[in-house]
Hints:
By secondary structure, this protein is mainly alpha-helical. The protein has helices at 6-29, 36-46, 55-62, 66-78, 100-120, 126-146, 149-158, and strands at residues 82-86, 94-98. α1 (6-29) packs across α5, α2 (36-46) crosses α5 (100-120) and α3 packs across α4 (66-78).
Amino acid sequence: MTEPPLAFRIVNWIAIIDQLASTEANRALRPLGLQLPQFVMLNHFSHRPDEAKTVTSVARALQQPQPGVTKTVQKLVAKGWLRERSSEGDGRSKLLVLTPAGVAKHRAAVVALSPGVERAFAGWSQDDRRTLFALLDRVKVWFDQDRDRAPRQAARRQS
């Protein structure tokens, strides 16, 4: 059997790292009463904590099905980490905002996760860390910008 193309192997390695890191993250977050999907959502909100978001916009950004996002949102609202309010423009839609308790829980989660990720990079120079981050950022930005291109192309092929 021939070896898969290098681009595939790189993305496959990232997926394997994600699986291993997710398992470690779940273990580290358990004492905080936080599950990884909840942390992912808090992390999403933490980038712009004052910005209100809809379930639909969160689902799109996280590329997850809306029912699953709704379920996670409900848990975060029940815990007081997100607050919801009715949208002025659309009474059926709710706007979600990170609460001060949500900010604090996110910070506590980052503290809990940091020792594990720091161990992964023990012995790495700051230059090596910055180089890896810059290269991974290029890949992330490409996938983020390309996310809607594939569905549009598939729709054109079906027409």
